[in-house]
Amino acid sequence: MALEHYKKAVMIEDKYRRQFQRMYPERDKIVSRLGEEKYRKAKQQIENLSQ
What is the count of structural domains for the chain? Predict the structure, then answer.
C-alpha cells in the first residue's frame, strides 16, 4: 500500500513539474509541491519497496 502512495505522489509531482515548465518556460527553478528533498526520498522509497 505504501508503494502505491509513493508512486502516486511522484506521478502527481512529475505532472506538476511538466505543467509548471510549460506555463513558465523562462524560469530556471521549478517550484515544487513536495520540495526536492521529499521528492528524492519518495523516489528512493519506490526503489526500496519495489525490491
Answer: 1
